[in-house]
Specification:
Helix content is 29%, strand content 21%. It has 14 helices and 28 strands. Strands 1-2-7-8-9-10-11 form a seven-stranded mixed beta sheet. The protein has a six-stranded mixed beta sheet with strand order 12-13-14-15-16-17, with no helix packed on it. Strands 18, 19, 20, 23, 24 and 25 form a six-stranded parallel beta sheet that branches. The chain is globular. The relative contact order is 0.09. About 9% of the residues have low confidence.
């Protein structure tokens, strides 16, 4: 079943009410998802993306009810992951010579997934356009690492629709398709859950990419995502939220997460929370047992928090396995601008608390002194925990927070075309399209990081190293980057503007000062 989107654009995707997990079992979806595919019928007919591979047969059957497949002039594949391009092989088996428009990295990803290197690929770069007749064109924008190297978005002129790929989407299946028809609170929850669990590691790129897209100066009437709703009412409110979320977002909130063998660490968590609440009654406090509650909800709350406490009993002189797994995810998500502390109980050495403390520091948190209790906490120990909570609340009280949001969206129809200028977002940070384009380097190139790893103890007070905010590769001026012709002893200011991180292949704009 197709759904009319606007003018000659139809949604031809699949709604998946049953799926529970994404990325293996790492992302739990409580409200299903949708795989959004779009059919544009102007003088030229274009299909943007397909659907998950498990729905290939259903997708093609429904598409053939809309159109003779041989009438499709172009296929735009914005991302090669199976939930976007899973039905591509089945489609190409029927129309094998149809041109496929994608990024250069997209060719590698598509071939890697579908093993058909002889398909008719046409690679695009930011700013390239494709005339589809009736005075309309598709304009392409590379979206590297949002959230794959092959990611791109597509803008339809005249109709002013941004086909945004994974950006601005959510794993949310609803009987409706448009944002103004959906439950606004549920929609907000799923958008924030999606951003915090999937896109947070790439926050610096989200900010830069929003500025790049808006610098084009084009109006945006609709945002057609790859999952979840199509934003047609007050469409750019989600762009504004993404921009806010991408900048070390934090609310007046503290989250405590723990696992406990005998309930002792849980008692500590409750007591610490009481102390925080007594000292700072305006702070929202959330407590979760990682073994019993939704990990992705926990991560979304950590994303929202200014402070985080992680607790565990000690088992075999290490932390509980689910706590260890959570910390590994926290490290990968690269939450920015947050404080943290470790706590826990043990019968002997308390190895868990020491390990949690170390992992929080590795993950970039501003870590306070840990709290460790031997055995089951008695009244004195619990009083110490309450006081510990009070002291943390005092120490974290000076942390600035983002503007407190309404936990919902506003569904209102704008009176005229919605368009945001970059000056509304950041007058000081406007980049042209050309400034944001960079040449690729071979993925096989050996990085200097591999040749000469740098230990934290090698960075003295005069360190001038720079670190990639996406993959954490470190540029050390003393070593340079010989694979890109950057000689040893080259300061960062003299590194060429076309320099790319050897690990994730992103440009200089994602590097920040290394602070150890």
């Amino acid at each position: 079943m197709s759904i009319h989107v606007k003018s000659n654009v139809k949604w031809v995707g699949i709604k998946d009410w049953e799926t529970e997990f994404f990325h293996g079992t790492e992302y739990k979806m409580g409200r299903g998802t949708s795989y959004n595919s779009y059919l544009i019928r102007e003088q030229k007919t274009v299909l943007i993306d397909t659907v998950d591979h498990q729905f290939s047969e259903q997708f093609l059957a429904q598409l053939e009810q809309e159109i003779d497949l041989n009438e499709i002039d172009y296929i735009v594949t914005q991302h090669a992951e199976h939930d976007h391009a899973g039905a591509l092989s089945a489609l190409m088996a029927k129309i094998p010579n149809t041109p496929i428009y994608c990024t250069e990295a997209g060719v590698n990803s598509i071939v890697g997934h579908h093993h058909n290197p002889n398909w008719n690929f046409h690679t695009i770069k930011t700013g390239d356009s494709l005339d589809i007749g009736n005075g309309k064109s598709l304009v392409f924008v590379e979206m590297k690492m949002l959230h794959w190297p092959d990611s791109m978005a597509t803008y339809l002129t005249v109709d002013n629709i941004l086909f945004s790929n994974d950006a601005f989407g959510q794993h949310y299946c609803d009987e409706h398709l448009f944002n103004d028809e959906m439950n606004q609170t549920e929609l907000f929850e799923e958008c924030q859950r999606y951003f915090s669990n999937i896109l947070t590691p790439f926050s610096p790129l989200v900010k830069a990419k929003i500025e790049e897209v808006l610098s084009l100066g084009v109006p945006i009437d609709m945002i057609a995502t790859s999952h979840g709703c199509i934003w047609r009412s007050n469409a750019t409110q989600i762009v504004e939220k993404y921009y806010e979320w991408s900048q070390a977002y934090r609310e007046e909130r503290i989250t405590l997460v723990y696992d406990s063998m005998s309930g002792n660490t849980r008692m500590m968590a409750d007591a610490i929370a009481r102390g925080i609440q007594a000292e700072s009654p305006g702070t929202s406090i959330k407590i979760y047992n990682i073994s019993r509650q939704d990990k992705n909800v926990i991560l979304a709350n950590i994303f929202r928090s200014k402070g985080v406490l992680i607790g565990s009993s000690t088992m075999n002189n290490v932390m509980m396995p689910k706590v260890a797994g959570l910390l590994e995810e926290i490290h990968g998500l690269r939450f920015a601008g947050k404080a943290a502390a470790a706590f826990g109980s043990s019968g002997w050495t308390g190895g868990a608390v020491k390990r949690i403390d170390a992992r929080l520091k590795e993950a970039g948190f501003d870590v306070a002194e840990a709290m460790h209790i031997h055995w089951k906490p008695d009244s004195d120990a619990l009083a110490q925990c309450v006081e510990y909570g009070r002291n943390l609340a005092k120490a974290w009280s000076s942390m600035s927070v983002s503007s407190q949001p309404e936990a919902t969206f506003v569904a209102k129809v704008a009176d005229e075309t919605t368009a945001i200028s970059t000056t509304e977002i950041s007058a000081a940070e406007e980049a042209s399209v050309e400034d944001c384009m960079a040449a690729e380097v071979p993925a096989q190139a050996l990085s200097t990081q591999e040749l000469a790893p740098i230990g934290a103890d090698e960075h003295g007070p005069d360190c001038t190293c720079m670190i990639c905010s996406v993959c954490h590769w470190i540029y050390d001026p003393k070593i340079g980057e010989p694979n890109q012709g950057v000689e040893p002893n080259t300061p960062w200011a003299q590194v060429p503007e076309n320099f790319l991180c050897p690990e994730c292949h992103l440009g200089k704009d994602v590097f920040i000062e290394y602070k150890g």
